[in-house]
Fold each of these.
Amino acid sequence: MADVDLDARLDELFASESKEFTGARDALVRDLKANGRADEAAEVKALRKPTVAVAAVNRTARELPGEVPQLHGAGGSQR
């Protein structure tokens, strides 16, 4: 079996739609276990689906990276 590029797969996981998160996470866990990486599989299994707000920020950061500083500034002004 091919080795798992954990960083790339985690990036894909957090870029996925919310409804796909759990299935994608569990597939990554299976792949890690199949590659003898049980400790990493346990860490990935513990990841929870991002909240709607976090998913929106993630999406913005991926699709409009130039807007992140403004988003960060807006969040800071709400404190």
Note: The mean pLDDT is 89.
Amino acid sequence: MNLLLLIASLCTASAAEALRERVLDLLSGVEEPATAADFAALGADVGIELQAIARDANVLPTQRGNALVALGHYPSADA
């Protein structure tokens, strides 16, 4: 049972890392900014990831700024 929990935990972490990388790729666009549809295609957790990126001081300032702009597509009580 513990092995199954470990595997599930690793898969979840891997999926979260993959989502973060895809979101960061979209936020890196300079000439052609990402659209709401681009972010929506990544799934339901995109808004949460955008919030995390906007707060992350280790992310490039342009990506953080683009995350703030993209958060306009994901209104929440936290914003």
Note: The mean pLDDT is 83.
Amino acid sequence: METVPLAVAAAVRCPQLGFEAMLREVIACGGDTDTVAAIAGQIAGAGLGCAGLPQSLWAALPDDSLVRSVALRFTSAVV
């Protein structure tokens, strides 16, 4: 399987599956799972925005407030 097409196909399924389930599904495909999941997560996350990401993932970050701050600054700069 090709990395980018698989990642895009997985990200498109995010609204139906949910973010975490989408990542689990793409990882279960095997292959270069870290790269495919990273790309799919970035595409899906861009569509969901910070508020659309699961709180459990935010809570797992060592400094979620810093990550949120950087993400919001980046978003405001490019949108």
Note: The chain has a mean pLDDT of 92.
